[in-house]
Amino acid sequence: MPIELEKTDIVVVGLGWAGSIVAAELSKGGRNVIGLERGTEKKTEDYLTAHDEYRYAVGHEMMQDLSKETITYRNTDDEEALPMRRYGAFLIGTDVGGGGVHWNGDTWRYHPYDFEIKSMTEERYGTDKIPEDYLVQDWGITYEELAPYYLRYEKNSGVSGEQNPMGPKRDAPYPTPPLKETPVLSEYKEACERLGYQPFMIPASTISEQFVNPDGQTINACQYCGFCEKFGCEWGAKASPIVTTIPTAKETGNFELRTHSNVVEIIKEDDKVTGVLYIDTLTQEEFLQPADVVVVSSHTTNNTKLLLHSDLGTAYDPKTGEGAVGKNYCLHITPQVTGFFDKEFNTVTGAGALGICIDEFNVDNFDHTDLDFIHGGNIALKQTGKRPIEQNVVPPGVKNWGAEFKKESIKSFTQSLSSHAQMITLPHRNNYLSLDPTYNDDYGRPLLRLTYDLTDHDREVHDFIGRKIEEIMVEMGATETVRRELTEHFDIFPAHNDHIVGGTIIGSDPETSVVNNYLQMWDEDNVFVIGGSNFPHNGGYNPTGTVGAFAYRAAEGIEMYLEDNRQLAEAGEVAGAN
């Protein structure tokens, strides 16, 4: 029997950006919040001198242990899904802060078109533009409604940036100026301008100058060391939950953090969710944590898995189209072109979000009338800081061993650059998440099963964007270019990107979505699900800024729900007394 604990106002499952924002906001308001995290607690000082590419980037020390909890994967319903044993297409963080600690820091606002993609597309191009097999839908919220929450997230993180000339309207400038424009970025910028584009600096949460956020937390200035993605920042210069929201929550005295606490089920009694069941990963003891509100804010995969394990909502059925839990799974695909040059660049220094980009081929900024796709992608060249193991490229035809490889890899390390795009992926009826009928996790519960393959739409956008990137690299002076090509089928092991979304999507219709625009479940009014799992499709930008904005809005929704319940309870007491 699990040990039943004292009831709290709110229990938060997972303390990445989404969960830690909710914890900070509600504890500041006087609510008692318990945060459950399956990993350990890490602080900035834990990452001092931790520039170990093999340990973090190759060995994935900051990620979920796949020997205990993984997912199974297949391309189609006709195949048997097999467990994922090593990371590739996406990364599932662990420890306090989650992906918000090992991210690069690109911090975008999604475009108004993304939130109303179906209605805006049909208005401009007609109802036949989107094929029936693609489950494209509006989000049930507009950019204008979400804009104030974007601003709150940017102020929390001290985002460094400049106005996107083709981007959504801003209600205030970024909190800090853009990062440094290096010689590499200047040359890329000039090439873009010669082609008639309007380049600008990527908005970054690896910030340009020291900043004190509205909660009094200090984020330091970036040192351009080049160890951001898959690493924790030793300088405290990358906005993350362990630098901002977790300390804020702790300072209120209303927040309790419990590590090594793996939530395996949301408990429902008498048609009402009453709390969560979690396992202490050190002692294997089971605990029941009652709460008025349950906040599910873990990784996209784990949000969906937890709802399916708990039988909350209706699981998506691709044959009938009914149900929404597990629906609209999407992965960011990244068209990329590597250029080889007859000159050297300083590619060792950098930062995760240090880059120049263009938006001419993103969202609906260009005419799609004669194209067999919608949307597009943000094209960029980033100077993230080259590392010798995973970022050691050589020209085509060079073997990956021997004297020639050594010679060419040393040359290419400073004489090659790669430009890429964050590319739209649309949801398809056959791409979804479900529970695996064969394989279980370390706790005896079914693994999450991913059914996913590339679509015709993916190929059309990838080819179009790839050609645009190649034109820029040639204009920049590349003597040889190599475009990344899509495989016949999606393979989970080569690295594509870490931005997976869908499974607990937002919407205005309970029949086609899991949560409303406060991220409150339609079927369980005291359960709020927050994260990339809310996105009905993947846009042409990194998703973290939008996750953060949604988390601030969800915190308001939770407070309104609790206040409404308090007023109802008081009214009931008065009525009873009378």
Can I get a quick summary?
By secondary structure, the chain is α/β, with parallel strands linked by helices. It has a single domain (3-577), classed as FAD/NAD(P)-binding domain (3-Layer(bba) Sandwich), CATH 3.50.50. The protein is 26% helix and 18% strand.
Structural commentary:
The protein is 26% helix and 18% strand. It has one domain: 3-Layer(bba) Sandwich (FAD/NAD(P)-binding domain), CATH 3.50.50.60. It is α/β, with parallel strands linked by helices and 578 residues long. Strands 1, 2, 3, 9, 10, 11, 12 and 22 form an 8-stranded mixed beta sheet that branches. A 6-stranded antiparallel beta sheet has the order 6-15-16-17-14-20. A 4-stranded mixed beta sheet has the order 5-4-19-18, covered by helices on one side. Strand 7 (211-212) and strand 8 (218-219) form a beta hairpin. Helix 1 (17-28) packs parallel to helix 8 (245-251), helix 6 (143-157) packs across helix 12 (544-577) and helix 7 (183-194) crosses helix 11 (456-476).
Layout of strands and helices, then pairs:
Elements: E1 3-4, E2 8-13, H1 17-28, E3 33-36, H2 53-58, E4 71-74, E5 82-83, H3 99-102, H4 112-115, H5 117-125, H6 143-157, H7 183-194, E6 200-201, E7 211-212, E8 218-219, H8 245-251, E9 255-258, E10 261-269, E11 272-280, E12 286-296, H9 300-309, E13 330-331, E14 336-340, E15 355-358, E16 377-382, H10 402-415, E17 416-423, E18 432-440, E19 446-451, H11 456-476, E20 480-483, E21 500-501, E22 527-529, H12 544-577
Parallel strand pairs: 1-12, 2-3, 2-12, 3-9, 4-19, 12-22
Antiparallel strand pairs: 4-5, 6-15, 7-8, 10-11, 11-12, 13-21, 14-17, 14-20, 15-16, 16-17, 18-19
Helix pairs in contact: 1-8, 1-12, 6-12, 7-11
